[in-house]
Design goal:
heterodimer; A: about 120 residues; mainly beta; seven-stranded mixed β-sheet; four-stranded antiparallel β-sheet; globular; B: about 110 residues; six-stranded mixed β-sheet
Amino acid sequence: ETGVTQSPTHLIKTRGQQVTLRCSSQSGHNTVSWYQQALGQGPQFIFQYYREEENGRGNFPPRFSGLQFPNYSSELNVNALELDDSALYLCASSPGLAGGQETQYFGPGTRLLVL
Amino acid sequence: AQKVTQAQTEISVVEKEDVTLDCVYETRDTTYYLFWYKQPPSGELVFLIRRNSFDEQNEISGRYSWNFQKSTSSFNFTITASQVVDSAVYFCALSERRDDKIIFGKGTRLHILP
């Protein structure tokens, strides 16, 4: 158990809709990162938040956005869903400003299916 | 550019055999970190090990061992006396000191047959 939880576990949406995924980090972990894992692929970095500020972003369009709250919870929002957004979305937390210097601990993920 | 290559897509071995998962990485940074994660069918990524680029000492933890060789940019993972519960997808990953993200390989799906 990593102490990182995500909700919901599964979600089905239709193309064009918006979705919000939630993550609760370990207490005391100030950094949260979000990853997208397509079927049969490794996770791909979406973005990272440190103390409620975005601290790095991967090659994802602006319709992917996030929020981090003082209570160690965070959200991933995706607007105008596309079929290719179907994936497992993972959040990971670490104590400080991560970089590679700290290990990130992952939650169980949210499986999103876009029809 | 950062890159992690896991050439073995899928491996099947009989229980109690030893198995080695290969990982080759590319980076331009002199300080970097390497990871192995395990992903069982439940989907959660389970952290196994982290090594920094200055520590080439190989490590053994129970049935797991890791062989880090900077000269060949490899970070291989061996399971000794495999068990059915070891069946999962294993990911090798890389992070540079200057960066915030982890770059994952595509994973190796390991089947341990009873």
